Automatic annotation (TrEMBL):
It comes from Paenibacillus graminis. Pfam families: Pyrid_ox_like. This is General stress protein. Residues 10-149 form the General stress protein FMN-binding split barrel domain.
Amino acid sequence: MSTLDKSHQEAVETVRELIKGIDTAMFTTISEEGLVSRPMKTQEVEFDGDLWFMTKKDTSKFGEIIHDPRVNVVYADKSYVSIRGTAKIVEDLEKKKEFWSAGYNTFLKTTYDDPDVILIQVHAEAAEYWKSGNLAEMATYMFKRITNQDTEKSDLNKTIELE
């Protein structure tokens, strides 16, 4: 495995661990009026560099992604993770069936084979995260930031390139 492959895999694993178990994300698209965010359920699939969401074509986000596929996805729990990427509309029936659950019958008021149901695949390009678990570590980090000391070695706030 090359150094580039190894560092990419490490970056993916870091993001995977940070977002693991967080069901809902704030999904941001670009509309004609500006940025628009809404909560969306992430599909239960292990993060491999791509995020998956299910929706319908008759939503504003569908048109916004067609017009401009740049998106941002934010997760917040024990850490805060902001993932920048490119969205793609996927209409693969087998993939929709794989991700479908009984809750969608009620929420989307349809079935997975409805041609209006789509998947959004977000290919992650970069992720920035802020850890918030260790109070002493956070206090030290904030003190260093306030006093203009180097915080590069801290892993409380990092940006990870995924491409």
